[in-house]
Amino acid sequence: MKIEKISVIGDGFVSCRSGFYRSENILSEHTRYNFTKGVNRLEGDIDDENWSVSYLLSMHSIRPKDFILFGDVKVEINGEASTLAEIEKYTCYMDSLYPDFGKRKTVRQLVTVGLKNNKMTETADNLREMFCMSMDRFDRPVRAVGNERYKAMAAIGYSRGKQVYCFPWLSKSRFDYFHGNMTGLLEILERLGVVVILPVGK
């Protein structure tokens, strides 16, 4: 299935977490989130709902204790009713909390496994070039690639067939720190026709 658009409505409390921040947030049943292919930039404070919906779509089954939900979350994929479990097959949380990013294995090793499991024709070096990663950092674990961390995560996610890239909330200063690597990555993901959910500070 090729994901063109997603719609989400939920109600409850979410303990959003990342390697940089933690925030106790809400989801409101009165807010419908609609996402389409390309970069969906959501500007707001750390405790706005923006981070909640990004975290919900990618981490609900991985960290269920971070969620207190009232009733079922309404999810639509390409205009058809779906479920959180189904959308999570396609989502990738762009943070070190996400288990696909491993601890000790290098980016190359993780990408190679992903490509093999998904029977993709690209090679690991094809993806290194696609995501503009330097050779030496591609042969390190994600935690050791410095400001290329989001490129590394995206390459791993892409090798696993992910189509929805859910970022944690980033302050303006944190986003600016990754500036060249981040804006370049967003352009790459947009060209690939995937969905990017990007909660950022004002």
Topology:
Blueprint: E1 5-9, E2 12-17, E3 22-27, E4 33-36, E5 38-43, H1 49-59, E6 67-69, E7 74-77, E8 80-82, H2 84-87, E9 91-93, H3 107-117, H4 124-130, H5 135-138, H6 149-159, E10 164-166, H7 172-177, H8 179-191, E11 195-200
Parallel strand pairs: 5-11, 9-10, 10-11
Antiparallel strand pairs: 1-4, 1-7, 2-3, 2-6, 7-8
Helix pairs in contact: 3-4, 3-6
Kindly state the mean pLDDT as a whole number?
A: 96
- The structure class reads alpha/beta
Strand segment count: 11
Low-confidence stretches: none
**Biggest sheet details:** 4 strands, antiparallel
The rough form would be described as globular
Helix content: 25-40%
| Strand arrangement across the biggest beta sheet | 4-1-7-8
How large a portion of the residues is in β-strands, by DSSP E? 15-25%
Determine the number of helices (DSSP H or I, runs of at least 4 residues): 8
N to C succession of SSEs:
EEEEEHEEEHEHHHHEHHE
Radius of gyration: 16 Å
Overview of the molecule:
33% of the residues lie in helices and 24% in strands. A hairpin with a 2-residue loop joins strand 7 and strand 8 (80-82). Helix 3 crosses helix 4 (124-130) and helix 3 (107-117) runs parallel beside helix 6. The chain is globular and about 45 Å long. By secondary structure, it is of the alpha/beta class.
